[in-house]
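Aim 2 progress update. The chain analyzed this quarter is reproduced below.
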Amino acid sequence: MRTTRRGVLKGGALAGAVAAVPVAAQAAAGVAAVIVYDSRLAESASFAGGRGIDLAAVSLREAHVALAGAMRVEGLTRWSDWTALRGLLEEQGLRRTAETRASAPLSGHDGLLRWSMAAR
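Predicted structure tokens:
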């Protein structure tokens, strides 16, 4: 089987779609999690469906307070927000369960990460 540029691009698009499964689909499956997103980024806002903690509306300190006691957190954020939140959530006893770079950005923002953390 021959590898083509088109095939590679299709595979990347599919991987991006799988990595950014909307939270509504997760909720339908019975998964309860606190959602973190940034409404300034179309992909992130779509992922959250308007529910959760919007990093465009709160500071990281306020987000940290809002996440206190969370047993599971899911997010689609920029790398910089993810690194700051990851440290704060690790202090609360949560551990990374998934981390995937979202591909094919629609809004032109590179570096979005789809991530999950949960208590162990």
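The radius of gyration is 15 Å. The mean pLDDT is 77. These observations will guide the mutagenesis experiments scheduled for the next reporting period.
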